[in-house]
Amino acid sequence: MEAGKISLLLLLCVHVLSIGVFGVPETCPADIDSKCGDKDDWEGEFFPDIPKIKYEGPSSKNPLSFKWYNAEEVILGKKMKDWFRFSVAFWHTFRGTGGDPFGAPTKMWPWEDGTNSLAMAKRRNWWCFHDRDIAPDGKTLEEANANLDEVVALAKELQGTKIHPLWGTAQLFLHPRYMHGAATSSEVGVYAYAAAQVKKAMEVTHYLGGENYVFWGGREGYQTLLNTDMGRELDHLARFLEAAVAYKKKIGFNGTLLIEPKPQEPTKHQYDWDAATTASFLRKYGLVGEFKINIECNHATLSGHSCHHELETARINGLLGNVDANTGDPQIGWDTDQFLTDIGEATLVMLSVVRNGGIAPGGFNFDAKLRRESTDVEDLFIAHISGMDTLARGLRNVAKLIEDGSLDELVRKRYSSFDSEIGAQIKAGKADFEMLEKKAKEWGEPKVPSAKQELAEMIFQSVL
């Protein structure tokens, strides 16, 4: 297929795990004309000047090439594509308008006509998706489901056997019915409607071969406690998630259920504020074995943490399942969803992922959007290439850190006093206060060594 004749539905937002580079299968369904109208209109000249994106190495000056991401290259025992399992956010990539709270849209992509019709939905791409991103809502639940079914049937045929969603989710925050929340709404009718919408979204994700399903709270929280029964809302949320687990098993969906912490925007206080809060919630309601956590780096910033902190918190709790690869602007206090281009941050991200042994069946979803001022179609490709290369450099840097061993040795030495008989007793829970008091008297005033923070930072910077 020529570069300019690439089906929009399968071009950029593919699960890159399947093919390693940006591109699409060489064939489209034979009956595409009957499904979508004229084939030329469907494929369109959306990307006439974009070639297949290939790895050309660090010396390349070609902006439409990978400099660091080499899908088949083995790093730390795995191919790069298997460490990352890259996927792209449909809502930001193909439906992003450039609008913000203070300005009108700046983009009108060639696959958009300014409507949210079913006909337009059939000309777009994904793959990670909200249900309402890929198909328009309806006046009734039945109509909304019918719209979704029509688009999903086409998507199933177009994606073939190699391409599939990394995850799907239900949009439970935009419609006015969800102004008080969905699973935490004060209205039982809204709770029931949200359950029906999630039921359908889970069925669709399963049908399309999705590997995960995400719960993004959106408005699961409160503006003031004066009119809120927080305990009751949390109980309702837990019952909602328990019902989702039961339905997942009923339909035979083997994908991972993920919860994405989000501290604010739009609700003043979200119940899934950060990874620690989410882990505590899951543990309280006995859901730890049923869910993992999807960490978004920009949300980490909004919660007052670094992305590395959130990843490590999820990891040490055995809950790290997926990463929304983006970043925020430290000088802007809202969710800017920028592409991750900071090599240091990417290295810290990959340090957690490597320590976790990878995140499959999760992956890296580019929940990121072009800047308002970037309006060329080419910019979509450049942004994703840059994000993929940045994370690939991070992985390569982690490999250097592990090969060098200095950082691991520094950490080992710092805690070496616990590599003793008394340390083993503490770890085993056999060191009571009487025993520890006896040791404290025997040892006298402890000698506290340096933490060597500057040395740790020097070692880390040396691989960047």
From TrEMBL:
GO MF entries: metal ion binding; xylose isomerase activity
PROSITE patterns: XYLOSE_ISOMERASE
Entry keywords, A to Z: Carbohydrate metabolism, Isomerase, Metal-binding, Signal, Xylose metabolism
SUPFAM superfamilies: Xylose isomerase-like
Recorded catalytic activity of this chain's protein: alpha-D-xylose = alpha-D-xylulofuranose
Enzyme class: isomerase
InterPro entries: Xyl_isomerase-like_sf, Xylose_isom_bac, Xylose_isomerase
First and last residue of the signal peptide: 1-23
Record GO biological process: D-xylose metabolic process
Superkingdom field: Eukaryota
Enzyme Commission number, as recorded: 5.3.1.5
Protein family per UniProt: Belongs to the xylose isomerase family.
Name the record gives this protein: Xylose isomerase
Organism of provenance: Punica granatum (Pomegranate)
Upper lineage: Eukaryota, Viridiplantae, Streptophyta, Embryophyta, Tracheophyta
